[in-house]
């Protein structure tokens, strides 16, 4: 019997009109709504779901992961805790703003953002994966 998380993720990715555990159980003969509900109320993390989503996307559709950083200019947000003086490659100078790193999956036609993190100069040097959502 397939793992409940795998069934739940498959339903979310492929059956866009199904939103309840009962409807997912009706669509998949090997799933029960009780088992799916217990899984959702359990002590699993969103990181596990992201890991399964990545595996499913690469297994079914292939594609590519894109890791990109961008600077959001915030010249008047001096009290914003995440803002700092950062290099903007777009403006070719140091600006006051927020530096964001984004992980995106694409098959060449569709782009799906998977994770992001605000980068801080004084932040931890060794960040752990998976990132914040």
How many structural domains in the coordinates? 2
How many DSSP helices? Answer: 4
Backbone shape? elongated
Mean pLDDT: 76
State the order of secondary-structure elements, H for helix, E for strand.
HHHHEEEE
Low-pLDDT ranges: 128-133
How would you describe what is shown here?
With 133 residues, the chain is an alpha+beta fold. It folds into two domains: 4-44; 64-119, no CATH class. 32% of the residues lie in helices and 29% in strands. Strands 1, 2, 3 and 4 form a four-stranded antiparallel β-sheet that branches. α1 (4-14) crosses α3 (33-41), α1 packs across α4 and α2 (21-27) packs across α3. It is elongated, with a radius of gyration of 19 Å. Mean pLDDT is 76; it is low at 128-133.
Briefly summarize what is shown.
The chain is α+β, with helices and mostly antiparallel strands and 133 residues long. It has helices spanning 4-14, 21-27, 33-41, 46-60; strands at residues 64-73, 84-88, 93-106, 111-119. β2 (84-88) and β3 (93-106) form a beta hairpin.
Please name the defining characteristics of this protein:
133 residues, 32% helix, disordered C terminus, 4 helices, alpha+beta, 29% strand
Map the helices and strands.
Elements: H1 4-14, H2 21-27, H3 33-41, H4 46-60, E1 64-73, E2 84-88, E3 93-106, E4 111-119
Helix pairs in contact: 1-3, 1-4, 2-3
């Amino acid at each position: 019997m397939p793992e409940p998380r795998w069934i739940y993720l498959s339903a979310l990715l492929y059956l866009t009109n199904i939103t309840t555990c009962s409807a997912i159980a009706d669509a998949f003969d090997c799933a029960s709504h009780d088992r799916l509900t217990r899984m959702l109320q359990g002590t699993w993390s969103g990181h596990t779901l992201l890991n399964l989503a990545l595996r499913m996307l690469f297994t079914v559709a292939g594609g590519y992961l894109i890791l990109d950083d961008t600077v959001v200019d915030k010249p008047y947000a001096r009290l914003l805790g995440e803002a700092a003086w950062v290099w903007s490659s777009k403006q070719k100078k140091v600006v006051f703003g927020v530096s964001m790193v984004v992980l995106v999956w694409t098959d060449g036609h569709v782009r799906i953002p998977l994770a992001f993190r605000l980068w801080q100069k004084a932040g931890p040097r060794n960040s752990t994966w998976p990132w914040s959502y």
